[in-house]
Amino acid sequence: MARSRKKSRPISLALQGGGAHGAFTWGVLERLTECEDIEIKSITATSAGAMNAAAYISGYQKNGSTGAREALLDFWQDISRRGAALYSMKPHHIATEVLGSNPLLAWTPHSFATAMSSFLSPYDFNPFDLNPLRETVETMIDFEAVRASPIQLFVAATNVETGKVRIFEGEELTSEAILASACLPNTFRAVEIDNVPYWDGGYLGNPSLFPLFYTDAPRDVLLVILNPLERKGTPKTAGAIQDRLNEITFNAALLGELRAIAFVQKLLGQNWLSKAVQSRYRKLNIHAIRGGEMLRDLSLETKYDTSWPFLSNLREKGRDYADEWLGSCLHHVGKQSSIDIHETFLDGVES
């Protein structure tokens, strides 16, 4: 008799945001779809991570792993095409008129927007609420397929009025939810959903892990990290200071949740909880692909670089890191964590 195919191992994914650096996550997802030993059943994601997740699920619902890979490729090609069109608008002409000529400055759409946001809000310098991401998200992702998929998706956004995280899921998954999760307040107007304004979800959950605790999501969680956790030395220039502040801000919520997970795991591991209390908690196996290590030397500016060579290079790096993870850590899935949370993320933080 022919031997039956080995059953795949279910996992949950947790995808960080990071602008164009999300092309690294594209590569990770592409490589994971080629592995028949795992099955992605739940995804929690923010910003670019949410876009990757929605594109992946949209394609997967239509044509399995092949469809997922095709949808991701189409999505990022459209991002690059629209980015090239935006760059061709030559904002440096406007910048020179408004801010003066400086041969040391190379104006790009992002640098122009950054400079303008130092004294104008997007409600001033972007009166028509132009957002090149909107057309890509609305045309390249089939949200009916996303909502119909058995793959769970949780998308985080920040409620501007309450300062609390909002998780969109199920029938709430629309293009507006994805755009809300990726809404940087210095660049875009707040995205309103049911008359509630939302900003980028990274401020409160990059990504949010707690949705995985209260559902039937697989207990093996693979984090795809885009922001460096550590950076030696003190930043001295304005740009370097801003870069580091962004990294710290967009990692804070994740580190807080990981600390809580580590604490609960310790209680469960050492049997410090009664049987009745233990049943209320899930033991999670944590795994990680730390792309932030490779992305550490890239500036904040590159998060807005949509040139095809740059995105393709990040995609290949993501594939390489995922391939390494599959080779060294896959055997842990379903059994135990492949990283020590404290050693990897919380070194120096008291438990």
What attributes characterize this protein structure?
351 residues, alpha/beta, eight-stranded mixed β-sheet, 13 helices, 8 strands, 13% strand, globular
- Care to count the β-strands? 8
For the sheet with most strands, the description reads: 8 strands, mixed
The number of helical runs is 13
Shape assignment: globular
> What pattern of helices and strands is seen along the backbone?
EHEHHHHHHEEHEEEHHEHHH
Provide the residue-averaged pLDDT.
85
Binned strand content: 5-15%
Question: Which runs of at least 5 residues are low in confidence (pLDDT < 50)?
Answer: 89-107
Rg = 21 Å
Which percent range fits the helix content? Answer: 40-55%
Spatial gap, N to C terminus: 53 Å
In short:
The protein has 351 residues and is α/β, with parallel strands linked by helices. The protein has helices at 22-33, 48-87, 91-99, 109-117, 122-125, 132-140, 143-148, 175-181, 238-269, 275-278, 292-295, 308-329, 341-345, and strands at residues 9-15, 38-45, 152-159, 165-168, 191-193, 196-200, 220-225, 285-290.
